[in-house]
Amino acid sequence: MPDGIATGQSAFNQQAFFAAHELWEAEWHRAQGPARETLQGLIQIAAGCHHLQQGRRSPGQSLLAKGLAKVAKAPQAVPSLDGAGLLTQVSELLAALVRNPDAPAVLLLASLRV
Fold this sequence. Notes:
This protein is mostly helical. It has one domain (3-108): Hyaluronidase domain-like. The chain is 73% helix and 0% strand. Helix 4 (57-73) packs antiparallel against helix 5.
């Protein structure tokens, strides 16, 4: 596994979503085939989480949905990623954001992991 992917996963799991986005973007530029689209989805999910951290709920939800759709096409394309688990977590996060429009989004991010 390329270092940028593992380091990005670590950053994401520490809720350093912007850093994860940047690390994965570097790997995305080199990726080919299904892994490229899955990485793009991860980048969008990380960017969506960053928006949520910053209180920008609408763009956050939009990027989460776009990223979810990309990862869903090839969830196993990045071997170190639990794609199925991530799909479940992001789907649940999106549902929670809809169910709880007044809840601080940052609280809903607490258990998200890749």
